[in-house]
């Protein structure tokens, strides 16, 4: 066994690389176990070991072989790491089990192409060194936030939320945490190859994580904390949108809120009102009056039909939105990042000639995208910046919304993924966004995880999952800005690009030699 791993780590002209089947199996397995580093398992060390094995498998491989190894790793990563989609596809999407698994496999294959292209580029254009592998990893993680609208999940940095390396988050964001984690993973391989000098940068990075964690970028404002109540209705997903259950849903949330009037803010989750505001104006007016009577602001998720925009555009404009009513409260937020096939149909314009119903059926055309320059809610003299569900997975979107805010508030409905790791991975992202921006995050969900998260990304309180619950907290408004809030992802992306440029400059000397030696 020792000789086997020695051959994996130290292939050379005298010690030929292992047959391709072995690194393919190792990379598939190491990708598959990566998600165990994230919630709910928190085996953070796998976020070091998993990419370390991928790095070792790429040693002296051709670009084509590297592509296959990367695809194998990426498939394992996404098939296991995002298997929580099975519940929404099979249980709530009413798709048979075999087809559901095949759909997840197809998704894993497509998302695995990110790692495949990353490893191909690495072996085709750059020298074998942690200083090119780590920046490429970061740039490809970043690309997952925007390519094909993005699926920004399973980032290495999330494994270190609340542990070890998270001090880098308020400096340069989750991608900086990923960069350090991957550099440490590669350095481990180099140390096992008896390149002991990699102990020095590894020690410096760990010492730096401890040092930057001592920096306080923000501090509480000298004003009364905001008393907040979060309402978790626990409405089953298969009942939520049934016409006959809509009034029952409103009754559940209204009853749970009955004891909370008089506090500063009551927050209901995403689409807790399963009707457009045009269909339920009388109920909204009643809640608004109750809030003003008791001195309470009321924030709720609701599908919103913008009649003015619809008239201007000539077709219905629907939004997944949040609104604030009640005492000393105002604001409407329209979701900016929509879930493909869940909230809109991609390329529906191009598909119109094939499926003309897409143009005229509101249930098929789905939601519209909200503007990028929306103002925060004004509540009790504080500014609350909003994010709806999936949006908190986008670091820069949350950062942009957090500018000039006192709190961050997100509402979600993770009932689609009940009983899986999905909701807990989602919560972990909210923690990272709080840490990056130095703001308390108020999170109200339908089935869980409803929680208060402080400016350091720590969960202060959380409600039990899959139960009706009311969660109360008193939250201080924060002032000041983290470096990440000021400068976004550009410092870490720029630094990564700089390292790759240096790698490209030295490529002829370092890469071509390795290929010639194999001939």
TrEMBL record:
Pathway: Protein modification; lipoprotein biosynthesis (N-acyl transfer)
NCBIfam families (UniProt xref): lnt (TIGR00546)
Gene from which the chain derives: lnt
Full protein name: Apolipoprotein N-acyltransferase
Domain of life, per lineage: Bacteria
Domain CN hydrolase: 231-477
SUPFAM superfamilies hit by this protein: Carbon-nitrogen hydrolase
Membrane topology classification: Multi-pass membrane protein
Pfam hit, one: LNT_N
């Amino acid at each position: 066994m020792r000789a086997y791993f020695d051959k994996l780590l130290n292939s050379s002209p005298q010690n030929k690389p292992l047959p391709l089947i072995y690194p393919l199996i190792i990379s598939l397995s190491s990708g598959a176990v990566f998600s165990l580093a994230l919630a709910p398992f928190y085996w953070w060390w796998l976020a070091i070991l998993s990419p370390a094995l991928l790095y070792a498998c790429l040693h002296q491989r051709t670009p084509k072989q590297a592509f296959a190894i990367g695809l194998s790793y990426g498939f394992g990563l996404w098939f296991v790491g995002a298997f929580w989609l099975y519940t929404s596809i099979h249980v709530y999407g009413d798709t048979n089990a075999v087809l559901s698994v095949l759909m997840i496999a197809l998704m894993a294959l497509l998302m695995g192409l990110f790692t495949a292209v990353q490893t191909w580029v690495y072996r085709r254009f750059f020298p074998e060194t942690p200083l090119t592998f780590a920046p490429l990893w970061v740039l490809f993680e970043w690309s997952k936030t925007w390519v094909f609208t993005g699926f920004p999940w399973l980032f290495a940095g999330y494994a270190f939320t609340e542990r070890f390396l998270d001090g880098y988050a308020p400096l340069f964001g989750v991608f900086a945490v990923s960069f350090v984690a991957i550099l440490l993973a590669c350095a481990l391989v180099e140390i096992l190859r008896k390149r002991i000098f990699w102990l020095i940068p590894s020690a410096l990075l760990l010492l730096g994580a401890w040092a930057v964690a001592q920096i306080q970028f923000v501090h509480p404002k000298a004003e009364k904390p905001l008393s907040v109540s979060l309402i978790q209705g626990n409405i089953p997903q298969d009942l939520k949108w049934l016409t006959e259950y809509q009034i029952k849903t409103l009754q559940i949330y209204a009853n749970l809120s009955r004891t909370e009037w008089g506090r500063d803010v009551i927050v209901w989750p995403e689409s807790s009102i399963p009707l457009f505001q045009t269909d339920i104006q009388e109920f909204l007016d009643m809640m608004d009056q109750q809030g003003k009577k008791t001195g309470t602001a009321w924030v709720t998720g609701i599908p919103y039909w913008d009649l003015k925009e619809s008239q201007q555009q000539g077709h219905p404009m629907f939004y997944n939105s949040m609104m604030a009513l009640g005492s000393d409260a105002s604001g409407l937020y329209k979701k900016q990042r929509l879930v493909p096939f869940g909230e809109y149909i991609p390329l529906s314009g191009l598909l119109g000639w094939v499926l003309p119903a897409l143009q005229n059926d509101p249930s098929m055309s789905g939601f519209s995208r909200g503007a990028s320059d929306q103002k925060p809610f004004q509540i009790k003299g504080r500014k609350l910046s909003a994010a709806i569900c999936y949006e908190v997975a986008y670091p820069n979107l949350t950062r942009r919304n957090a500018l000039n805010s006192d709190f961050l508030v997100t509402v979600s409905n993770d009932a689609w993924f009940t009983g899986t790791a999905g909701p807990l991975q989602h919560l972990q992202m909210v923690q990272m966004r709080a840490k990056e921006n130095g703001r308390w995050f108020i999170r109200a969900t339908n089935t869980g995880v409803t929680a208060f998260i402080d400016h350091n990304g720590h969960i202060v309180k959380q409600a039990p999952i899959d139960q009706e619950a009311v969660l109360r907290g008193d939250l201080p408004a924060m002032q000041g800005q983290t470096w990440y809030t000021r400068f976004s992802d550009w410092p870490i992306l720029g630094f990564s690009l700089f390292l790759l440029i240096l790698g490209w400059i030295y490529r002829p000397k370092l890469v071509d030699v390795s290929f010639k030696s194999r001939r």
